[in-house]
Structures are given as structure tokens and as C-alpha cells.
Amino acid sequence: MGVTIEHEEQSRPAISISGLCKTYASGLEALKGIDLEIRRGEIFALLGPNGAGKTTLIGIVCGLVNASRGKVLVDGHDIVSDYREARSLVGLVPQELVTETFETVWDTVNFSRGLFGKRSDPEYVEKVLRELSLWDKRDEKIMALSGGMKRRVMIAKALAHEPRILFLDEPTAGVDVELRRDMWGTVRRLRESGVTIILTTHYIEEAEELADRIGVMNRGELVLVEEKRKLMRRLGRKKLTLQLAERLEEVPPALAGYRLELSEDGRELVYTYETQAGRVGIASLLADLNAAGIRFEDLQTEQSTLEEIFVGLVRGER
Asked: Which DSSP letter does residue 202 get?
């Protein structure tokens, strides 16, 4: 019996969202029937332009915004009928830096733990501060910290009550590249400890670096949810650049079907193709180049980035 219950808990989604809608008093439809399941222990990146509905979605799951329609379960707990239990499982790092500027780092993290009815646990708080490289700053007032350190304090506050699910809304906004990469390591360590992470970001490389799965939102709708690697394989494009042995004046009519681009100096041919049809297309191209008497000295390939895929999805090109 105990094994069965444990198996059910492990297979249960961390978050289950069904038919979620939000219409504000102004008439704005911020969310239009969102269906989404977040798996336990994954890093899920939620992408979308400003106004796509990402922050509204997070606000509803975290109990800060009321839904118009739909249902949200956090580890099986309904966020409306079982609000206290559901909310205790969730930590939120908001986009805005909201911190009690005159408090010390130690006091503000301790206070956040107490807000959720957790007993004082100095050892746990110390562990969180050390993991976030804040231990040496524990007695400093938050007003004296840099923007990057304040961002770390926000994460520490969100982790103070030992949540199993953590929302990071633009966690590295306004921090330098070095600190951003440092915080990526923190996110990975949190996931390794069993925390499920939902990340919103404007930095596409952040999603590309961290995420297991990616959801793309646009105008209140969930356009796509896909494993990151599958997404890049399915929707990505590759570019094959051929360095020609001899200068070419124009692309021969026999090769028109490949939509090749000839460089201005006539020394390079560029072939852009879908990754799914890659091998067949390249083999055919090389055979036709040979038949046309066009020789090349070298070739190189590059794959489209997640940013290019994302832009295409939002524009409705894919």
C-alpha cells in the first residue's frame, strides 16, 4: 500500500493547469484556456514577449491573482479549496526587487520562513545563504548590497520555507554576464536537490542553457510545449556554407530548387535547410553540384539558435 501511494506521488505532476482563463476588468484577456503540466524535478522555461501572459499565469499559480475560469493543482492540491497547502509548496522570486532595505540578509530570510509557519532553523538558513554565496553578507543591510546580491536575497527568501516548486520570474534581469552564469549554476543545484523550477526569461540563451522543456506563450495562449532538444531538432534550421574552389558568376538554373545564396564575391554558396530533411537534401545538393562542375574546397554548418526558433513561432512562421 505504501509503495503504491509513493509511486502515485512520484508520477503526479508538480503542477497541473487545465482550462485556465483570466479576463481583467478592463476586458483584457490575459489568459485564454491554458492547459499545461509541469513535471516533477524539471526546469521548465516559459518564453514569450511582453504581454504574453507569463506573469499572470505565475501570479495565479502562486495565489496572487484570481483566475476567471479553470483549475490549478499544485502537487495534487487545489489552489483555491486547499490554498494553504498548495501555497506552502511554492516559492516565488518576482521580477521586481522588493526587499526590506533596512533589514539584514539574515533577518529577512528568517522572517520569510516564519511567514509560512515554519519553525526557526538556523542550520537550514545558513545552508541556503552559503549555497547562494550570501553567507559573508548575512549581517549586512540589504540597502548596501549590489543589484546582483539583492537578486540572490530574493531567491533565498523564496527558498526559506523549503518549497518543492520554485518560480523564477526573470531571475537574472539586470545582472552582469558573470553573475548570470553563476546563478545558472545555482538553478542547476536546486534542481539536483529535487526542486522543480519554472523559469521565465527574456534571455533566450538562458532557456537554451538550462531548460529541459520549453513553453512559448503569445497573446494569452500557449503556442507550443516541447522538449528543448526535440524543439531545436524539429523546428531548427541548419546553414551549410561551401567555400568554392573557383569564383562563380551566378547559381546555375539546374540548382534553382535549392534556393542557394551566392556571396557577393562569388566564392561562397550558402544552403539553408530544415534539420529533419538534412541528410537527403545535402546528399542531393552535393551530387547536383558535382554534375554542374562546381567544386568546393571546404564546408561548414551552423544550426539555428533557440532565439531564431522563438521569433519564428511568435510571428507565426512555424
From this structure: S
Other CB atoms within 10 A of residue 247 CB: 9
* Element holding 44 (H helix, E strand): strand 43-47
Quickly list DSSP for 247-282. Answer: --SS--GGGGGG--EE-TTS-EEEEEEEGGGHHHHH
User: CATH number of the domain that 138 lies in?
Assistant: 3.40.50.300
Query: What SS3 class is residue 42?
Result: coil
Residues 133, 279 within the same domain: no
Q: What is the pLDDT of residues 255-273, one digit of tens each?
A: 888 888 899 898 988 887 6
Kindly state the helix (H) or strand (E) to which residue 199 belongs, with its residue range: strand 196-200
CATH number, residue 258: 3.30.70
What is the count of structural domains for the chain? 2
Q: Is 303 helix (H, G, I), strand (E, B) or coil?
A: strand
C-alpha grid cell, residue 20: 485556465
112-126, 211-225, 275-289, 303-317, range with the lowest pLDDT: 303-317
Phi, psi of 294 (to 5 degrees): -100, 120
Is residue 24 over pLDDT 70? Answer: yes
Looking at the chain, list the stretches that DSSP marks H as alpha helix, in order from N- to C-terminal side.
Answer: 2-11, 54-61, 83-88, 105-115, 122-131, 147-159, 177-192, 204-210, 228-235, 278-291, 306-314
Distance CA 310, CA 46 (A): 11
Residue 185: all three cell numbers together = 549554476
Domain edge (last residue) among 192, 207, 232: 232
Q: Which of 232, 267, 283 is the last residue of a domain?
A: 232
Rounded Cα distance between 121 and 139, Å, is: 17
Report the predicted TM-score, pTM, of the whole model to 2 decimal places.
0.72
Half-sphere exposure of 22 (CA within 13 A, CB side): 25
Q: Which domain holds residue 289?
A: 236-314
Nearest of 70, 91, 55 to residue 202 by alpha carbon: 55
Amino acid symbol at 222: L
